[in-house]
Amino acid sequence: MLILGIETSCDECSAAVVEDGIKILSNNIATQIEEHTPWNGVVPEIASRLHTEWIDGVVQKALNDAHVDLSDIDGVAVTALPGLMGSLLVGLSYAKALAWSLDIPFVTVNHMEAHLYAPHLEYKIEYPYLGLIVSGGHTLICHVHDQYNMEVMGTTVDDACGEAFDKVAKFYKLGYPGGVAIDKLARKGDPKAFHFPKARLNKGDNPYNMSYSGLKTAVINQLNQFKKDGAEATHENIAASFQRIAIDMLIDRVKIALDERQLDQVVAGGGVSANSYLRKRLTSIKGCKAYFPSMELCTDNGAMIAGLGYHHIKNDHLSDLRSNAQARVMAFKHKYP
Fold this sequence. Notes:
The chain is of the alpha/beta class. It has eleven helices and eleven strands. It has two domains: 2-117 and 298-335, ATPase, nucleotide binding domain (Nucleotidyltransferase, domain 5), CATH 3.30.420.40; 126-292, ATPase, nucleotide binding domain (Nucleotidyltransferase, domain 5).
């Protein structure tokens, strides 16, 4: 079964063709980084306009790269939530029209779930496992019981992890995208040059929830208060020290969750899953096997949408052509009957 996957939730315009939920025949990603760099962040209006201009060409290239025609496609899967509304609507509208015109199955996909599916495109991973979704917009720790039952154990109460990376990078003019720039600089810095604080939530709060606003404030507005004697306030040292605490907060909770749920696998997805320090820390957890997507599949991409969409279509979990986009996920517990 050949599924065309379309992803336009933020600033990547992507389309892919995946066979039987596993074999990637093509994965075309048109990035808008250059267009958003002057603002050091994604401008929603620019993003949606570019998606409108690019999407047909992106889809055509995905078909050409896969050496297939539209007549060969057995179903269309598209991101419908969460994301920027303007961007989501471009991909959703295109996918609806395409599926309708071809009279083939159509399914909407939650791209957070798709991020956790991305490693399944490259590895044979058994259920259950602990899922870690870390991106510019979301930070989630999940108990993934099976393909259709994902229980969120904890999330951020304010800034997402990737958002904190971007804001720190923007303030110190480290480069864009912020996560990539900080990871690169951190390799040359002292991770203990600054003793930034780990957020502590109120007693009785969900122990798996996280907060990044305090860390972000400390790095941006209170830098000298946390500098170790004799350390230099270089960009490399700031990046290394910030990255250490930001990632260690995740690792602390992952370890507790693995122990409580008696799991021995963790699957990471999302843009921040490309971070070298996160990968190092997760792979060093004793008695636990860690899975990561390849670098191309860490960011938003059509292949993960097509891969997960295949299973929805195969199990007849189809979507209505009246389905709408949704910017946020209010109740993140996805379970099919």
